[in-house]
Amino acid sequence: MPANEQHTTVQLKELQNRVASGDENAFTELYLHFGKKLILFGVSLVRSKEIAEELVEDVFVRLWANRQGISGIDNLTVYLYVAVKNKALNKLSQKAQELVAAPFDYLDTTMNEFAADPYDMMITSEMMAQMQHAIEALPPRCKMIFKLVREDGLKYKEVAEILNISVNTIDVQMAIAVKKICTALHIDKPGNFHHPVPAGKREL
């Protein structure tokens, strides 16, 4: 299966079971599926690609070392994001305790990519540039939430679990993001803008 292909819940469970039995190919497939997204998430926390890559590698090394228990992980996506978040916070704590105590809103998010879909391909490069600028101008927490939902394809409940905030907060922040992006693109009504949340992402 191609690395960029979205895995269904059933397919992920199958990969988990194969990893639990020692299948190195399945483990590699899991890394190819999650690695890049987790590294970008790590960068948003530690502000260093090199450190983020190390954190993600550590998470996967630990996952392989404890592979016998991977079948019992109910939601591997949330598990991996939380693991990266925890390692990032530990790293920040080692380097600068005051950063750990800083408000979450001061964390920066780097959005280098958009998931390619038919709508994205139809809009003009100028509009894409305006959209990217609007996203980069979002408040840090709002931008991170938008990234996890729109780019990484996570559900509201998953983002809420990863960031330890309420689903209602996710909904509010996504509404703010859409409104600001629409304003930047000179779209009066959000209803005329392709909503960045795919169907089902709000499900609880």
Secondary structure: elements and pairs:
Elements lengths: L8 H12 L3 H23 L2 H17 L10 H20 L1 H5 L16 H5 L2 H12 L3 H12 L4 H8 L3 H18 L20
Biggest β-sheet, characterized? none
Helical content class:
55-70%
Number of helices: 10
Low-confidence stretches: 1-5, 97-103, 110-117, 119-123, 189-196
Describe the structure.
Helix 2 packs antiparallel against helix 3 and helix 3 packs across helix 4. The N terminus is likely disordered. The chain is 65% helix and 0% strand. It contains 10 helices and no strands. By secondary structure, it is an all-alpha fold. It folds into 2 domains: 93 residues, Rna Polymerase Sigma Factor, Chain: A (Orthogonal Bundle); 89 residues, Winged helix-like DNA-binding domain superfamily/Winged helix DNA-binding domain (Arc Repressor Mutant, subunit A, Orthogonal Bundle).
Overview in brief:
With 204 residues, this protein is mainly alpha-helical. 65% of the residues lie in helices and 0% in strands. The protein folds into 2 domains: 93 residues, RNA polymerase sigma factor, region 2, helix turn helix motif (Rna Polymerase Sigma Factor, Chain: A), CATH 1.10.1740; 89 residues, Arc Repressor Mutant, subunit A, CATH 1.10.10.
